[in-house]
């Protein structure tokens, strides 16, 4: 995808990272528009974290170019970036508010503003009662929320969250989704990595799909769905032969596992209603007619396929 | 720069806020104080000891009693000297042997120089009574009265079942249970432990050895038999041995027709030795106590440096490993550069180290001020001498240099390891290297410009310790300049190198790297 994106906050061009013989990231290019919520999706070990670390210049790419907020190095703009690493850790002995204050100060905020901001955030996201507690007394999920807050306390233009949802209970996952949406509404760009498709589906407007270090897909959620043909599932004991000749139907496939189940692959512009009407007219009696948009999960499995399974059992 | 300050400040505050830090700091002065008091109490609390004297020869009972009396008088003398030092009007450490300014100083000095002769003089001149008269004008008005120590060795009655005329073997056998502590003797109606038996056999004179004669070997114990199960308290046997030998020599003189008094006078004749320092100004060459302290002071500095550096680098190591194993380091590295993080840590932990030293010095000062006695007065005077000497700038320089050098190395080690256990294996050689100059420190002070010491000073890891150790002895200029240049170059190299290792190491997980990997880290561009 070489067409320039206006207002790009992050651009990767053919980025490669090798460790000896092992290629962790293999020629990834992308462009992330300002204000978007961008998901990095991929199975475990796909290269998501390595890519993120290269973006932040914690490690340097073996080759390729990165431009972040208009600068070649994240070090130049690190006060404008917020980062939550994959493995979560905090200073155990510090008080919660002081910890958030400290990380905000490391990002260039002055002491008083950082303190005010810490208290504001803790109050807004339901942690006010723990502000004076030591980090070590928090539960794992709360600790993680604190860490997210400490990563974004300085109102960064670009927020990069590596697996922010792992370890959070459903309620707190929602709180975090809300936080991400708040930031996006505020004009901040959010990049997060996950292997849980539902979060990406609910939040993202763009995704990057990566497996074995290679980019498999990037673009909007809709274009991701479009990579899978739209399908209609029908169940009937009648002859489906008339449907095969219908305009807009690419293929009619018999389900090998279940008798009388058929899958119709249809063109994008076809209205499923037309198919239903045709069935009616041709006298095909249906016991089931189902049209669904493909889920991101389907896209993921479709695009990554066997790779994902291989990674899972590594 | 701001970031370094922020990181350093957090490191420092977090460190200072932990209980462990204060326990670590305060344990040192506490142990010091406890040891001081324990020692003082123990030496004052030596219990009364009962002995039995059986003199079958009939010649030496008097000599043994004299010996015990002399030992008692010696203790009075010693305790009187310390009483005097505690309570006399003013004391000046810069007095030398050559210019004592009063009878009291003369007296204290004499005891210091030759205790045996001083004791003779003490006994001859009338002991305590005379000394009190002599010293009273020099005592402070509110000085408490002097309390003489009690007799430590007291003769006990011989148990009735012991026949003093039987053979030495039989007497020893009969008293053995008492000496072993199995049975108790009776003293003034109370039971007591028998400390020693001094048994002088009838023919003891046969065992006298003279030059050019071979001692007769009868197979059994020769000479005076001193039986005691306490083998470490040698005061009693020493005193007896000295006293009886002096008695025997006296008799020999008589037999040879030499006047005994003449011999004693000759024995007490002495010529003082003035120690002079050729490096001092003309007229001030005489070596005073202060000069001696100044020469030995580097030992204290080296030790202080060692303890403080060890403590600081340990903090640094465990702290780096904590951040690493917590993965906090990744957040930090997204906010600051590895160089800033490293410098922040070095400065922050260095400040903790300085706090430690400051607390130690302060508690030491407090101890000296609050607990006023002759010993602490001496300590405070030593402190004064040391602080006014030109050793302080040396110490400050070598402390910081040593800290930069060692902390750089330990930080690199910490960044390569995930657990303290892993780090300990890598730390071990570094600690061993520091032990070498520490083990040498007493020897180095005695011979600071020895060729081996000079050569070793050029090894940068030894330089801070050894050059500090030699500081009071005006080491040759080439050594000072050369080792300093080498040291500074090594510090630059170590900080640069550990910066690289740190950057590479902090994000590593898994096994510590192999030697080859470390070399490749060195070569890499970032």
What would a concise description of this structure say?
Chain A is an alpha/beta fold and 314 residues long.
Describe the overall structure:
The complex is a heterodimer of chains A (314) and B (526). With 314 residues, chain A is α/β, with parallel strands linked by helices. Chain A folds into two domains: 8-221, P-loop containing nucleotide triphosphate hydrolases (Rossmann fold, 3-Layer(aba) Sandwich); 229-293, Alpha-Beta Plaits, CATH 3.30.70.100. Chain A has eleven helices and 13 strands. In chain A, the strands form three sheets. A six-stranded mixed β-sheet of chain A has the order 5-6-7-3-8-9, sandwiched between helices. A four-stranded antiparallel β-sheet of chain A has the order 11-12-10-13, with no helix packed on it. Mean pLDDT of chain A is 84; it is low at 310-314. In chain B, the strands form two sheets. Chain B has a four-stranded mixed β-sheet, sandwiched between helices. In chain B, strands 3-4 form a two-stranded antiparallel sheet. Chain B has 526 residues and is mainly alpha-helical. Helix content of chain B is 65%, strand content 5%. The interface between A and B is medium-sized, with 28 and 22 residues.
